[in-house]
Amino acid sequence: MLTEAISVPHSRSKRAISSREINALLDYHNRVRSQVFPPAANMEYMLWDEGLAKSADSWASRCVWDHGPPQAMKYLGQNLSITTGRYKSITDLIRSWYDERHRFSYPNRCSGSVCSHYTQMVWASTKRLGCALRKCVNMFVFGSTWSEAMLLVCNYSTKGNWVGEAPYSTGKPCSACPSSYGGSCWRNQCSPSTKRKRLTRY
To answer: Cys bridge to 45: 39, 67, 103, 189, which one at CB 3.0-4.6 A?
Structure first.
């Protein structure tokens, strides 16, 4: 009996994010958040959230170059990145988000096509991050089909990028932290007093 091979347009494989990559993503975000200009008075320290990571993985598994799912976008922020080639580290996939800072003028002006990846990264009240990586095959991106792609989905809570609002308040670092932090400040960010080195949650 002859069988015909059928091409599956969105075959995919899971690629779990390692603890090293989790720390790299967190460290990158928190470094960016600690160095905003003008300085932030109310920037909160960002922590990893496994629930957000799972929701990001669920969406990434569809291998669709779009934000979603729609119902979750009402209360979650989301940044996407995609590449066809090799990359040295996971932070290579998010550097373009940070580069948008060159086009962003505080409090809410963007001189380029998009600044929202950067502003989500530095939204003061966004203090939870969860990301997922998926290797996708025959994925439709930017009007063409990519034979192979690595898709990164990062979900954020609380959601940022509210129209007309600034991503943070300016002033002396930690001078306007929410009272729940009890005045604890670390690297220019409002931080839980139960620190130290890693605040990663797995």
So the answer is: 189
Question: Residue 125 has which token pair?
Answer: 């009240």
Provide the token pair at 64: 């669709």
Sequence-distant (≥ 6) Cβ neighbours of residue 24 within 8 angstroms: 89, 90, 91
This prediction has a pTM of 0.89
Query: Given this model, what pLDDT does residue 121 score?
Result: 98
Tell me how far apart the alpha carbons of residues 108 and 164 are, in angstroms, rounded to a whole number. 7
User: Distance between CA 64 and CA 59 in Å, rounded?
Assistant: 8
Q: How far apart are CA 114 and CA 82, in angstroms?
A: 16
d(CA 139, CA 114): 23
Q: How far apart are alpha carbons 104 and 112 in whole angstroms? A: 8
Paired residues of 136 in beta bridges: 12, 149
What does the block give as tokens for 169?
């308040």
**Cα–Cα distance, 84 to 65 (Å, whole number):** 13
Residue 182 tokens, joined:
């009890």
Is the per-residue pLDDT at 125 higher than 70? yes
